[in-house]
Design a protein that fits this description.
The longest helix is centred in the middle third of the chain and has 18 residues. The chain has 113 residues and is mainly α. It has a domain of 77 residues. The protein contains six helices and no strands.
Length: 113
């Protein structure tokens, strides 16, 4: 069943808990660049982080169909990946990947599920 845009919006705002500037700074780090799958020099998550920054800087009524599709993809990724907490989550590929997708798992008041 496809989610409504209202559902995607609510989940996006809850799960993508990093601000554009935070994501920009994170994407510059070696930790950010060290994780993810890639057939090129840049991982899927790293590319997604750049797209998330663009989307977060738009008003809701400015979002394109492609933006909504990416937002739904991001929400799905965060939910799946956040559920796979490793034994030592701090300073892990798990945390680094989530941050590439705009989600800091160590920020308070975040509900994943």
């Amino acid at each position: 069943m496809k989610k409504s845009r209202d559902q995607i919006w609510d989940e996006w705002r809850n799960l993508v808990n990093m601000q554009p500037k935070e994501i920009e700074e994170w994407l510059q780090t070696e930790e950010s660049k060290s994780v993810g799958d890639s057939d090129t020099s840049e991982s899927t998550g790293h590319k997604s982080g750049k797209r998330i920054i663009e989307i977060k800087r738009k008003d809701k009524d400015e979002l394109s169909d492609e933006d909504w599709d990416h937002m739904a993809k991001v929400v799905g990724y965060i939910k799946r990946h956040a559920a796979q907490v490793p034994n030592t989550p701090k300073a892990s590929d798990w945390a680094y990947s989530l941050k590439n997708w705009g989600h800091d798992p160590f920020k308070p008041d975040v509900t994943v599920g």
